């Protein structure tokens, strides 16, 4: 059976300057949540040139007074079907390793820049949940995917860190709210996203056998470009590297 080479591409955006990395030793691990918790990722890029290393380390340092977000985009897939976005977030810290590979490690969280963005939002006495979510999506600079039953919310107000707005909307509307891959998702609790159901079997890339847990079933399978967070999942983990 011929090998289908794996594709991994990392795009780092600092001060509007994008740096793309693909033809290097790249490893990425992460966890995504279908709730207001921030999606996590750790990216390790080895064998970068010193100039690029120093630039990224300086710009992503917590002592850097530049307040603009440092964004990262992770795309992955196979050569046969191409790469798709699997993670989008902010770099929160960076560190350098030892020779000979000198790995640069980036730790990332989704929407972390919004932690320092203090907002004050007030709505009319009765306002539709959709309108509240539309305003929040604009605050996060994301597109809105609204798949919940709309309803009127009374006296909705919010003051605080932008990221906490997701939790307040989820509680006020009785819905599931989260951010994934540049989109703010709002859906009814326990209802999967429309057109996001993946049939997992030995023929579609399942690895091993399903494992029963206290909250359901845990399944491992090969990465594909169709699976979406919220498609009958509440939490999933991924591990990637550049090797086949």
Describe it for me?
- The protein has three helices and 17 strands.
- The protein has 244 residues and is mainly beta.
- The chain has a domain of 109 residues: Elongation Factor Tu (Ef-tu), domain 3 (Beta Barrel).
- The strands form five sheets. An eight-stranded antiparallel β-sheet has the order 2-1-5-6-7-4-3-17. The chain has a three-stranded mixed β-sheet with strand order 10-14-13, covered by helices on one side. A two-stranded antiparallel ribbon has the order 8-12.
List the helices and strands and how they pair.
Blueprint: E1 6-14, E2 17-21, E3 25-33, E4 40-46, H1 50-59, E5 70-78, E6 82-96, E7 104-109, E8 118-122, E9 126-128, H2 129-139, E10 143-147, E11 152-154, E12 157-161, H3 165-173, E13 175-180, E14 183-188, E15 206-213, E16 216-221, E17 235-241
Parallel strand pairs: 10-14
Antiparallel strand pairs: 1-2, 1-5, 3-4, 3-17, 4-7, 5-6, 6-7, 8-12, 9-11, 13-14, 15-16
State the strand order across the main sheet.
2-1-5-6-7-4-3-17
Structure annotation, total helices: 3
Helix-and-strand structural type: mainly beta
Radius of gyration: 20 Å
- Please provide the ordered H/E string of secondary-structure elements: EEEEHEEEEEHEEEHEEEEE
- Beta strand %: over 45%
DSSP strand count: 17
Average pLDDT figure: 87
CATH topology (fold) name of the domain at 6-114 = Elongation Factor Tu (Ef-tu), domain 3
Largest sheet: 8 strands, antiparallel
What is the 3D form? flat
CATH architecture of the domain at 6-114: Beta Barrel
pLDDT < 50 runs, ≥5 residues: 233-237
Short description:
The chain has a domain of 109 residues: Elongation Factor Tu (Ef-tu), domain 3. It is mainly β and 244 residues long. 12% of the residues lie in helices and 47% in strands.
